[in-house]
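Hi team, as promised in this morning's meeting, here are the two structures we talked about. I've kept the exact order from the run log so nobody has to guess. The first one is mostly here for context; it's the second one we should focus on when we meet again. Sequence first, then the predicted structure tokens.
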Amino acid sequence: MTTWHKASYCGDSSNCLSLGAGAQDNYFVRESETPNTVLAVTPASLRALIRATKAGRLPSCRVTHRCRTLNAGGPGAS
């Protein structure tokens, strides 16, 4: 069973990311609004996500979860 840790940035908010430790140096990430959807990520991809978040390079999303395409390289970029 995975022990989940809520991001400290969330405070008392219910719309947060949680992180859990997986097997073989992998991590699990999930969003509180869809807790049954879990992503398995490598340490390198988790570091890249954290860096992109801190640098403000993520797409802006609306409440409907329709996000603009991020055109900054990587998967899906043109």
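And here is the second protein, the one for discussion:
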Amino acid sequence: MPIYEFKCRDCGEFFEILVMSKDAEAEAEAKCPKCESQEFERVLSATNHAVGASDGGGGREKATTQTRNCSAGNCTTYTIPGGG
């Protein structure tokens, strides 16, 4: 049961939707919690993994984060070095 993250095209609010494996209608019926628009796009959610060596990176470029408010409270987006 994946949780998908979305961004409202009308107001810019980020929110999440839990989609049951056989419940494709959940996404189709979803509305932005802030403005109730049904115009939104799926965004790439953050992953939870370590970047760099365990000793603090050993001179490697570190991941950067951006935290913002979303329907779940706070959502964090990670920019992973070398991710293209």
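Starting points for discussion:
Residues 25-28 form the longest helix (4 residues).
The chain has a mean pLDDT of 74.
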